Amino acid sequence: MPGYEWIGETEKEHINDVLETGILFRYEFPNERKGIYKVKEFEDKFAQFTGAVYAQAVTSGSAALKVALSALGIGPGDEVITQGFTFIATFEAIIEAGAVPVPAEIDQTLNLDPIDLEKKITPRTKAVIPVHMLGSPARIQEILDISRKHNLKVIEDTAQALGAGVGGKRLGTWGDMGTFSFDFYKTITTGEGGMVITNDRELYQRASEYADHGHEHNPNVGRALDGRSFLGFNYRMNELQGAVGLAQLSKLEDIIQRQQQNQELIRETLESRDGIVMREIPEKGKDSYTHVCFFLPTAEKAQAFQQHIASKGIAAIYFKNNLWHLIHNWEHLLERKTAWPGPHPFGGALYGSEMTYSKEMLPQTMAILEKTVVLPIFLQMDEDHLRRMVVELQAAAEEIL
Ligand SMILES: *Cc1c(COP(=O)(O)O)cnc(C)c1O
């Protein structure tokens, strides 16, 4: 699954470039830094890889979502629709922006269900965040069509699907903005880090200002005299992270290719079994091969299958019980517990409405996830391990199906 498995010499070389100058800050120090701008170079190469015009590096994937929402001017009183199956950061970023997260169902893609998305739109809805979960695309074209019809902005949370695409167009470049994470578990890592991409010059400028206390980054004046048109915050990536990011990015094509090879035998084994249905990939969709996801006929069988595999020492996830990726298991969100004592943002005058959450609100998501088993794919799965996985998957299928 992750780039951390391949941290090595290239990362050291890029980090040494930075340490030799001693300049860890991404801006300023033109004489001391000897032409080394790792974060800037990482942004440029990342934009190139995804096919976006602009990229803004930030401190995390969570920050990337917050920065994108802020660039789009989304805040108190606004509703943002996203799926109930995602990493909790998607919800947290909406709340941090002062807006209200509205959960929608997933479908057999394990991503946002366009039909339910349309049902959840209200006069307060300003944006949609489809999340490309577990390496595979959402029905992005349909989601965009609905969003355009209702004049909604689209931020693609692509934290888990760097390199995936639809019809040759990479995920993250379909919506108004795309966000990525480089935390330690993602396809490439900078320890912590994130990226916002867009093709819109003004949105990029706003993102870059918001992520750096409002600095306009005017190349003709020094930092102290830089102009500002609104208040921001600090989400700056530093040069050490940029250095690791550049090294990791140079390996990304190889990482994806190795993962594709690693998952092939596993996917073929599962596909050929009656009673197992693979996760749906939208037409012309291309996976980034971080996970193999499949459905069993019942919740009992799915849980038994996952337990059987896990008991043999093979990583397998039953997301219905996962504490961090499914709204049903977020008791603090269900109770609307934020760091603020008041009802904001779920109620009160700014919102002018009242949002509540419950375990019953996404029955379709629950019905899908209770039958879902997920196998994470790792770079270091060698021939022996893969063959053993196939044997155990077949044994589990014999016993349970
Ligand atoms: C990892 C992740 C994030 C948050 O990224 P961090 O860098 O850990 O803050 C956001 N959304 C999804 C779907 C993620 O998987």
UniProtKB/TrEMBL annotation:
A biological-process GO annotation: polysaccharide biosynthetic process
SUPFAM superfamilies: PLP-dependent transferases
CDD domains: AHBA_syn (cd00616)
Modified residues (N6-(pyridoxal phosphate)lysine): K186
Keyword Cell inner membrane attached: no
Gene3D superfamilies (UniProt xref): Aspartate Aminotransferase, domain 1, Type I PLP-dependent aspartate aminotransferase-like (Major domain)
GO molecular function annotation: pyridoxal phosphate binding; transaminase activity
Superkingdom as given in the UniProt entry: Bacteria
Active site: K186
Protein keywords: Pyridoxal phosphate
Similarity-based family: Belongs to the DegT/DnrJ/EryC1 family.
Name by which UniProt lists this protein: Putative PLP-dependent enzyme possibly involved in cell wall biogenesis
UniProt organism field: Desulfomonile tiedjei (strain ATCC 49306 / DSM 6799 / DCB-1)
